[in-house]
UniProtKB/TrEMBL annotation:
Recorded name of the encoding gene: B3GNTL1
Record-linked CDD domains: beta3GnTL1_like (cd06913)
Region (Disordered): 1-32
Protein name per UniProt: UDP-GlcNAc:betaGal beta-1,3-N-acetylglucosaminyltransferase-like protein 1
Bias-annotated ranges (Basic and acidic residues): 10-32
InterPro entries associated with the record: Glyco_trans_2-like, Nucleotide-diphossugar_trans
Domain Glycosyltransferase 2-like: 38-207
The organism of origin for this protein: Ameca splendens
Length: 378
């Protein structure tokens, strides 16, 4: 196996901007050059996808300096061998390569592997890349340019789903959100409004937010990071161009995260960021999802619910909902109204893109503004 050579420092004449650290004019401490962009890639048993993924990295049209930083999380296939086999081609293209990992009996999880890949990297900007996805040639260049103009933003992009047609509603949601909705729809069940495989940000912003949760399998490390980004005043931003082939398959780590785990995180974040600012509100959906949200709220926020509203005449005719499991006496009862009789602000607990446009038409008929008069929680 070839040793990993130390890549030659570019001179100011070549680069116009040499970034390095050293101590004293005699170089008593080894100097370390930073690069413009580090591609951060966690790997676990990904050998069947690596050729397409790595070839796409080689084909990037970005003119700055790049580095590929890989952490192999206890792969049992030949992922490590495949990665090492691409080292020379990467370095011939001018892309530095850092590969490390562990061979414990069990993987430590995506959050752990990403953190290791970030820690060992030296880029001023971080481009997160899953080993089963494929970059378009302009991805690094366009996201880098966007990051320079939006220093406090987590940059995403539109995606092309593979196989085509898989997760159709989810893919449409990813690609159709407006820039404002990247904030207002952060409470929906789809997760981060800029999806993790498309993330690009400065190292400074990443370190400000903090490392990924390393709880391992079943932990939504991307959603936890995304919510912490918003708490820290960071913002999501999307390049409105398809820059990534986002592969769907049953081995994807996201399938290990349970719906209940995501639900609890979303409820807590909704209460923290939205409901704490409201004196009262209406839950739009008197059915299962609306009632579940009500039951999961704190007692303080339950008392703020002035009504449920719906379009279902059977629910409306019941006229109220009684929270039978409550320990309060008498048990809380909440009116159920037709949506035209209800007043905002609203938390919408009806799934988007599932009513043939009826929900969206009803909201528009009330002349409500998303992010002020209502938020989606669905």
């Amino acid at each position: 196996m070839k040793p990993n050579p130390t890549k030659r420092l570019r001179t100011a004449e070549e680069d116009g901007d040499v970034r390095e650290t050293g101590r004293g004019e005699h170089g008593e401490e080894e100097r370390r050059k930073t690069v413009d962009v580090s591609i951060i890639m966690p790997v676990h048993n990904a050998s069947c996808w690596l050729k397409e993924c790595l070839q796409a990295i080689l084909q990037q049209d970005f003119a700055g300096s790049m580095e590929l930083s890989v952490f192999d999380d206890a792969s049992t296939d030949d992922s490590r061998k495949v990665l090492e086999g691409w080292r020379e081609r990467m370095e011939d293209r001018g892309i530095s390569v850092v590969i490390s990992g562990h061979n414990s009996s069990q993987p430590r999880g995506v959050g752990f592997a990403k953190n290791k890949a970030v820690t060992q990297s030296s880029g001023q900007y971080l481009c997160f890349q899953d080993a089963d996805d494929i970059m378009f040639p302009q991805r690094v260049r366009l996201q880098y340019e966007t990051s320079l103009r939006n220093a406090n933003c987590l940059i995403g992009c539109r995606v092309q789903r593979l196989p085509e047609g898989s997760t159709e509603r989810y893919t449409r949601w990813i690609n159709s959100l407006t820039q404002d909705q990247l904030i207002t729809q952060a409470y929906t069940s789809h997760g981060p409004t800029v999806v993790m495989p498309t993330w690009f940000c400065s190292r400074k912003l990443f370190l400000k937010v903090g490392l990924f949760d390393e709880g391992g399998k079943g932990v939504p490390e991307d959603l936890l990071f995304f919510y912490q980004l918003l708490r820290q005043g960071g913002r999501p931003f999307r390049v409105d161009q398809g820059l990534l082939v986002y592969r769907y398959h049953e081995r994807a780590a996201t399938h290990s995260v349970t719906e209940e785990t995501i639900w609890k995180l979303r409820v807590d974040f909704l209460q923290e960021r939205v409901l704490s600012q409201w004196e009262n509100f209406t839950i739009w959906n008197a059915g299962k999802q609306g009632r579940k949200l009500y039951r999961c709220m704190s007692l303080t926020n339950q008392k703020k619910v002035k009504a449920f509203c719906d379009v279902d005449e059977n629910k409306i005719q019941k006229s109220f909902y009684t929270y039978q499991e409550s320990k309060q006496r008498p048990k809380p009862t909440v009116p159920i109204l037709h949506y035209k009789e209800a007043t905002g602000p609203f938390i919408i607990c009806v799934k988007l893109d599932m009513t043939g446009g009826v929900l969206e038409e009803n909201l528009n008929s009330l002349q409500l503004k998303e992010g002020t008069d209502y938020f989606h929680f669905n």
